[in-house]
Amino acid sequence: MLKVLLEAQLPQGIEVAFHYLKGALPPRTPSKKKLKQPLPETQFLTVYEADLLILALEVLVYKAENLTTVYISKADSTGCHSKGVSLSTLALCFLKQLLAQQIGKVRLVLFARSQPQYLFPGSSENEGKHLLGDRELVHWWVGILERLRGISKDATACIIVPGSDDQEVERTYLAGYKAGWRVGFTDSPQALAKDVLLRFPDDPKARFLDQLSLDKAIDTTSLAQFWELMAYRQEMSSGRSVAFLQLDTVSEYPADTNVPSWDFLDLSDKKLAMLRDELGAQTFTSREETLLASERWLRLVPASTDGDAKPVCVFGRATLKTVAKADGKTINASKTSEMHKRPASDTQPNILVPRKRQRPKP
């Protein structure tokens, strides 16, 4: 399905390839002790253009009885993709088919915070990589979630920016979007935070929940109190603009229907973790270094999947008109007027969106 989605969205003449890896959790030993939350299933996507790694996304899927939570753990680019490749479209197609894999109610969550690099070490030094500042990155993800809302008529998207009032958030991030967005999450404000919030790796919410446990306040802190206090946490009040985003929807594939092929490779969670560590040991400071790292990665994946796991090739078929319509209101298509008004000191290069390369002077 991912291949089909990408072919329909990428422009004619664009060719990419991908490895879609899915880690299988080890069988659980029967235990009387109840887990506080489900164990996550890891899914990892790497995308290539001309044998160069250009994009990677890591997500964790938590499957509970009545709700599946999809957490976008990390997303990063190398800065080596061509002008015709939209990274937002690649990410959108991956997330769209990932949500469609689930059964019933699905919740997509992420924490938007700009960093020089997440998955490709040294890539911030690559002159082709353009990093966005905090606000621009939030805009980028809001644009993707807005497009994902089309999966279901009942989909609701939410945003919380700690330390900002609702009107400011709406004015800064949601101007121009249709109904279906709200500031604040859909869970009851009176519910205990510990009963509602999952704890993700490298997650500010999880760190705050741990602190509340140490302070013996975890059993009395409501969700409303949690978010109010969250604004005073050091990583939220250091002058940076960060956001927690959420999309609630329902899978379009009921349990009694045949789902399409998902194009992923199954391997053990341990092997996927080893592959992930190997990627983190490479260097992506330049196009040349990225090519060497990509060659190593392309050799490692088949060796870890017990077979000749070649990347899935995708040939774009979309016309320019279709691509322009699909891009809609995203950070790749155009920046908002408010973003243009910001001083240069408020913007820095972004992990996901490319910048125009300068022609060498004669």
From TrEMBL:
Its main location: nucleus. GO terms for molecular function: histone H3K56 acetyltransferase activity. Keywords: Acetylation, DNA damage, Nucleus, Transcription, Transcription regulation, Transferase. Residues 331-362 are annotated as: Disordered. Pfam families: HAT_KAT11. Its EC number is 2.3.1.48. It is found in: Nucleus. InterPro entries: HAT_RTT109-like (IPR051236), Histone_AcTrfase_Rtt109/CBP (IPR013178), Rtt109 (IPR016849). PROSITE patterns: RTT109_HAT (PS51728). One of its GO terms (biological process) is DNA damage response. It comes from the Eukaryota. It catalyses: L-lysyl-[histone] + acetyl-CoA = N(6)-acetyl-L-lysyl-[histone] + CoA + H(+). GO terms for cellular component: nucleus. Signal peptide: none annotated. PANTHER family: ALTERED INHERITANCE OF MITOCHONDRIA PROTEIN 6, HISTONE ACETYLTRANSFERASE RTT109. This is histone acetyltransferase. It comes from Protomyces lactucae-debilis.
